Amino acid sequence: INSKQLIFKFFTKKFPHFSSFFSKIGVMATYGQTQYSPALQPAGPYTHYTHHTQGYSVPSYSKYKHYLFIFSCGKKTCMRVSSKTFSQRSACLLLGDYHPPPSPPTPGKEEVIPARRGSDGKLRGRKKILDPAPPLDSDIERVFIWDLDETIIIFHSLLTGTFSSRFGKDSSKAVSLGLWMEEMIFNLADSRLFFNDLEECDQVHIDDVASDDNGQDLSTYNFGSDGFQSPAGAGSLCLGSGVHGGVDWMRKLAFRYRRVKEIYNTYKNNVGGLLVSPKREEWLQLRREMEILTDLWLTQALKALALINSRPNCVNVLVTTTQLIPALSKVLLYGLGSAFPIENIYSATKIGKESCFERVSQRFGRRAVYVVIGDGAEEETVAKKKNMPFWRVSCRADLEALTHALELDYL
């Protein structure tokens, strides 16, 4: 029995309701991701398939050279694509309605070069195409909403011991690295990102208090002596969402968030410049040791993020349950600054992920397709409620599969 027959036999035995479908297309390499739309059902010549909410966990077939099939339920199409061998666990990714036809790239702006008078006395001009302008929020066609901890980075599970016990790593080493990174995160947040001032005045988004900023030049502004915090702390002034302190105090709060934004944009591609020696050398060593311990988890996530960023009219957005300032510190220290513009980072600490997803949807509009990537129940529940495709990340292989799907333009 050859490899394709073996895979076919396994699927038809384990999933009998797929048997008539497989008999027409052979075998479908799959990615293990469950979609939620009840409308995602095969149509046309294929046998009716009732959507199931549970996921199907399928063993890896790393030894086999096989074929990948795309099944687009909405378009009644089936396309075979030859694929290199990969060891990810398999399952069916039925995006159906989530496959709008690709739009042409954003057209470049035309620059008219001044006309010159020819020998015959007539004016002649020509047009030069400039580099394409970055798309506006309303032009974005696909938004990838990412969770942070245990999806892109490994951090919290190092401290709790979950990562080491699940993947057979040295628990004492994992906890040690987690504590080391935690110290660096809060050290950077406190020393450079005003976390001591802003901890009790957390915001969902970096521009949430921008309307209180009068645009004053901050190049010589003394944040340490502007009286922002009273001796008892400023917590009483941050009473909750939408409740402001005095106008003068709110302006000083806005100044701090503006400076945080400036620091992020200045150092997002040069984090070492934020750290003084020996912290810089310690940070580089910590990053190396964490990548070894986590089997290049972050490196794999960065590949997927880079693929999305390379596409016109696609964008990465981060929604995390970490407070905004520590979240920015994490993003910088894990080297994610180039993947996430600061305007695309949201903290769900105060309002929850569902409200954050609403804000993201309002920003990019109804025409965009939203794909949620995460490891937690909260983002999965919200994705299901909003009928957004959800890509679960529970191990490094899920990131490899995501990268593979992006490379083949499945997502």
UniProtKB/TrEMBL annotation:
Binds 1 Mg(2+) ion per subunit. The keyword rRNA-binding does not apply. Mg(2+) binds at residues 147, 149, 375. The active site is at 147 (nucleophile), 149 (proton donor). GO terms for molecular function: metal ion binding; protein tyrosine phosphatase activity. It is found in: Nucleus. It is an enzyme of class 3 (hydrolase). It holds the Pfam family Hydrolase. This is Eyes absent homolog. The gene is eya2.
